[in-house]
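Here is one chain, start to finish.
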Amino acid sequence: MHRADALVRELLRQGGRTYAEQAGIRLANRPAPLYQLLVLTVLVSIPIRADVAVAAARELFAAGWTTPHALLASSWQERVDALGRAHYVRYDESTATRLAEGARLLLDRYRGDLRRLREAAGGDRAELRRRLQEFPRIGPVGADVFCREAQAVWPELRPYLDRRALTAAHDLGLPTDPDRLAELVAANDLARLAAALVRAGLDRRLAEKIRAAA
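Its structure:
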């Protein structure tokens, strides 16, 4: 087996669980799961460990706040408490506020449906990223997070392999051209590959295990 093929196989095997999946989101091109991905994006858009952000998302969803209407029906203190249970500290109070602001924006501008944002972007990746960054706390890095995951259900984003993913690819000896890298996997595995590369970039031990197994 070609070395690159073996590395990609191990990436998918050892780290190829998307962050959405880890947060309990059954991602589909429907309003609720897309909103849940937006919430996860907000939570990871601060300097905090990814596993803490994922745990915080799971707490919010377990409380039933899986749509913008449901989120806005919760109290600020309830949101703070849920974030606290996930040890999402220091940012819990401000995030509780930003989540409500984002839910209101989504309802006001897109009637609660991110598919309308997608339609408004008209297939233009830059415009989609710009619109995502209108949501509180989502900047360029957050837009990358959302698009990396959303490519699983929005094919026009493929291949979405951002700087973090491509840096990890370089370190593993894989192609750093997104199109060449994408040729190594099935199209429906691109989101998994992107997540695995990001994980390998964040976790040196995982990267070494992948190298050793390949």
